Amino acid sequence: MISSEFAIYSDAGFNSTFLKAHVDYLKPDFILAGAPYPKALNGENLHKSSLINSIMSRLKPRRRNPLYPFEVFLSTKRPKVIVAEYGVSAAHIIDNCIAHNVPVIVNFYGYDAFSRTIMNRYADAYARVFNHATYVCAQSNSIRLKLIELGCPQSKIVVNAAPPEDVFFNYDAPSDTQTIISIGRFVDKKAPYAVLLSFQLALKKFPKARLIMVGDGPLLFTAKNLAIILGINERVEFTGKVDAVQQRGFMMRASIFIQHSMEGPDGDCEGLPVAIMEASAMSMPIVSTYHSGIPEAVEHGVTGLLSPEMDINTMADNIVTLLANPEMAIEMGKKGRSKMKSEFSMENHIGCLRKMIGEASKNT
Questions:
Q1: Where are the beta strands (DSSP E) in 29-111?
Q2: Rounded to an integer, what distance in angstroms lies between the CA atom of residue 241 and that of residue 238?
Q3: CB-hemisphere CA count at 13 Å for 167?
Q4: How far apart are CA 93 and CA 70, in angstroms?
Q5: Domain 166-343: which CATH number of 3.40.50.2000, 3.40.50.2300, 3.30.530.20, 2.40.440.10
Q6: 275: closest CA among 230, 213, 218, 196?
Q7: Residue 13 CB burial class (10 angstroms; 0-12, 13-18, ≥19)
């Protein structure tokens, strides 16, 4: 059983699919959001909570502390457990949780474990997080190893990857459309330019192939210009940011999913990209890289084809292999869906979180 005083906090809000799933399935009593400290409670300004505001009005000197409303929240609502989405979220509130003896469960997803900037900024806070947290959850085994390197006790770490939503299993990607899809932020660690360069090489053998690139980000304009420079812009569709329903619509036009993940300039890496798992759940074969947790979800030669980071020639060959062998691609897609069902189900993921929350609540 989950404690009736269970709270969840994300400094990045809850727009991501997997964070929405945590709210929908776990049904926390308290949803905290805001950066660099909690500013909203259940969608309303934390400062304007009637009880919290009443207490703060009598303690005006303390009001200059931006974390004081959160301290009052801890004192008045007394949550038995707080789940912090991202290590950075935990770093923001860890001292308050320690002071009020509130157990914490932390989910690490990627940048919060790998970015050197984040590590330098939050090194001391992370040490306190690792010491106080009841459980520290890793999106992939690669993150688990990084957390150990950072000093987290192995006994506290649980690998519990955020899975695809169940709805993706209800769709079957079409076979042999010669359409490839990429979904994700246009940022360095997803290297959209490498996808374009690989696709250009594959077009030499399959000139009717198409590429759909879903998402936005700082490298989108550069990617569009690169497509023009390479002379492939008529074969590439940039959708910009889309909602979940639109995303599935674009996925239903594609037979292959592609993502060229690589280490960013700041050491930033993926955890285990949810978009890859969503595509596998829809029976799409995956073309990607040997990067971070990706090989944990994509078995090379079984559910997809992987290449080294920065190796656009091998990635292009992998695209060509799947386009030239549609029966192989279909079989890989089927095995990918089977792997998602058995190893990355929402039921198992949420069940694991529920168990940890129940165990942590016993410590209060």
A1: 30-33, 40-41, 44-45, 81-85, 104-108
A2: 9
A3: 10
A4: 9
A5: 3.40.50.2000
A6: 213
A7: middle
Residue 197 — φ and ψ, nearest 5°? -65, -40
Q: Which amino acid is at 37?
A: Y
How many residues make up the chain in this entry?
Answer: 364
Class of domain 6-162+346-361 as given by CATH: alpha beta
Helix (H) or strand (E) holding 336: helix 326-343
Residue-wise pLDDT tens digits, 192-227: 999 999 999 999 999 999 999 999 999 999 999 999
Using one digit for the tens of pLDDT, what is the confidence trace for 316-355? Answer: 999 999 999 999 999 999 999 999 999 999 999 999 999 9
| Residue-level pLDDT at 3 | 45
Other Cβ atoms within 10 Å of 250 Cβ, number:
17
Question: For residue 336, what are the β-bridge partners?
Answer: none
The residue type found at 271 is: G
The predicted-structure confidence for 146-202, as pLDDT tens digits, reads as follows 999 999 999 999 999 999 999 999 999 998 899 999 999 999 999 999 999 999 999
Report yes or no: 62 and 68 within 8 Å, Cβ to Cβ.
Answer: yes
43 DSSP assignment: T
Identify whether the C-beta of residue 22 lies closer than 8 Å to the C-beta of residue 83.
yes
CA dihedral 131, 71, 29, 130 (to 10 degrees): -10
Pair of tokens at residue 226: 């690169």
Q: What is the DSSP letter of 166?
A: G
Q: Where are the domains positioned within the chain?
A: 6-162+346-361, 166-343
Asked whether the beta carbons of 97 and 50 are under 8 A apart, the reply is no
Answer whether 6-162+346-361 and 166-343 agree in fold.
yes
